[in-house]
Amino acid sequence: MLRYTLMRLGVFAGCLVVVWGLVYSGLAPRGLGDSNGLWIILLALLISAPISLVVLRKERDRASERIVQRVNRAKADLEANRNQEDAADETARTQGQAQGQAS
To answer: Distance between CA 75 and CA 26 in Å, rounded?
Structure first.
């Protein structure tokens, strides 16, 4: 997941540099007044999103598979703990009933 995030940030940074160059060379429109920096960031975000969607598809799928594996492992651990608790509870009840009948 960290790798995907870093790759996504890299795509954004590349788009940011390109958009900045286009705006300051006059090939792309400038923002109004003092909003030029925000305009550059928003334009870079708008351009980097579809690029990341296409270019990083395989890495996103790998990250998703890892997350699914972790979730499944956590579910299995919770189920195992639940079964241990049920077994301990059943043992305690059985012992309590046996002591009650012996009295």
So the answer is: 55
Instruction: Give 83's contacts (C-beta < 8 A, 6+ positions apart).
Output: none
As a whole number of angstroms, the distance between CA 76 and CA 92 comes to 24
- Whether the predicted model's global pTM rises above the 0.70 cut: no
Report d(CA 23, CA 9) in Å as an integer: 21
Long-range contacts of 85-90 (CB under 8 A, 24+ apart): none
Q: Note the pLDDT tens digit of each residue in 15-68.
A: 999 999 998 888 877 877 766 889 899 999 999 999 999 999 999 899 889 999
